[in-house]
Amino acid sequence: MEKTVLRFLKIIGSWRDVADAARTTIRMDAGTGTPSSSWKRRMLLAEHSPIRKLLVSWKWGDLPYWVSVHFVRHKYGIEHFVSTQRTDRTGEDRTAKPQDAPVEHECFANAAEVMFISRRRLCSQASPETRAAWKMVVDAIAEKEPELASCCVPECVYRGFCPEFKCCGYVKTPQYAEAVARYRG
Predict the structure, then answer these.
(1) Where are the beta strands (DSSP E) in the chain?
(2) pTM
(3) What CA–CA distance (Å, rounded) separates 89 from 159?
(4) CA dihedral for 120, 121, 127, 128, sign (positive or negative)
(5) 49: which DSSP letter?
(6) What's the pLDDT tens digit per position in 60-107?
(7) Count of domains in the chain?
(8) Contacts of 13 (CB under 8 A, 6+ apart)
(9) What does the pLDDT look like over 73-82, one tens digit per residue?
(10) 108 and 27 in one domain?
(11) Which residue of 19, 31, 49, 84 is surrounded by the most CB atoms within 10 Å?
(12) Are residues 127 and 160 in the same domain?
């Protein structure tokens, strides 16, 4: 099997679009300029609806089919485009393909959904392969939208406790305390 790669990541929309949508909600006219980093982070942490105007588009190559299924389970605020395994399209017997057969998986999601996916897929209870694939996306987001990436944390950091039936123990470590402090700013 090939190693999963991130083929591209693009940001669609702008923080000006987010700010203008926020201004609409409080009956103000559109503004000018780019909002400050602290304003962006406050909007993200508050999860106000205008953050949905900021979209992230990405594509994984050679993603194992079973890992792709983990991501396809996310369905609100995201769209998925996964390469077919249909026998009539590929010329290969789909029933003979293993669960780790590589697929191309392209998505676009709004900022709110990107943060939500992070809560599930950065958790230590997620499979290592799924965590690694999602971390590729978050790392690429960090290069373009560091405020958004800083809000992409596992569920325990977001909530301040582990809600899983079987906790991994991360919440009892100094690294967890540091992650929570960074997240809360």
Answers:
(1) 5-12, 55-64, 78-82, 102-110
(2) 0.95
(3) 45
(4) negative
(5) G
(6) 999 999 999 999 999 999 999 999 999 999 999 999 999 999 999 999
(7) 2
(8) 53, 54, 55
(9) 999 999 999 9
(10) yes
(11) 19
(12) no
